[in-house]
Amino acid sequence: xxxxxxxxxxxxxxxxxxxxxxxxxxxxxxxxxxxxxxxxxxxxxxxxxxxxxxxxxxxxxxxxxxxxxxxxxxxxxxxxxxxxxxxxxxxxxxxxxxxxxxxxxxxxxxxxxxxxxxxxxxxxxxxxxxxxxxxxxxxxxxxxxxxxxxxxxxxxxxxxxxxxxxxxxxxxxxxxxxxxxxxxxxxxxxxxxxxxxxxxxxxxxxxxxxxxxxxxxxxxxxxxxxxxxxxxxxxxxxxxxxxxxxxxxxxxxxxxxxxxxxxxxxxxxxxxxxxxxxxxxxxxxxxxxxxxxxxxxxxxxxxxxxxxxxxxxxxxxxxxxxxxxxxxxx
Length: 330
What we know:
mainly alpha
């Protein structure tokens, strides 16, 4: 991220004003008034920036802000609004004694969200394909990092399973095969800026919410079961859509440098699916049965936020408008 984004409301304005100064105590936080905590532009920009302090930091921002207690108190209030909205929509995690791989498959199969990948494969325009890639850059340029927060919170077989999946995500030790690097190359081929965070000002709250969910679950030990379920569902729903995205790029005349990221996931995630569902999600449920409901909740949360995001894009395109907050320069 080369520059800080523009504020979108009271929360992000407050945050950006404070972050421009050396670390200092903030006043006590108030519960934010947000119409829709699952999509609000201001709330999710503020949360995204707070979380980014734990990833690669923010340009010009003193790194000591990461653990400033009064900033964390504000983040806690903003997180609570988002988390409460998710719990109100999905219900709290429920105990489960089912075979985890079967239960996870049932969650995935129950997804009634629209298929963004089918649309882009069959009829999406080049401009829509570019918009899709811009949306996904919020996560794909840090791919695997949110789930890696869970590594020190697991032990035994579930930990080994998570590390097995993550090793592939990080290229198996080959820097040029790191999945985030492959995505950056695809962006470059599409004429987009592959700089980390370059399009933050363009991304609506519904997109940032998909990444904030991962950060929320990954950064809180109490949600370690949910981040495992999130990753399991992510891997279980990745292979076929990525094949379609690769086909969409080929339909528009793009070659291997653009499709490599998506083609890589067709094969890798087909392998990861079983590891993530049986060994990670299932292994954690066997090791800590009390977390079985959390694992399934994390999978349901992924399905829910991704479906909302897909509907947002498709509805915008159906009405002939951009799905981004601002047009991407040609």
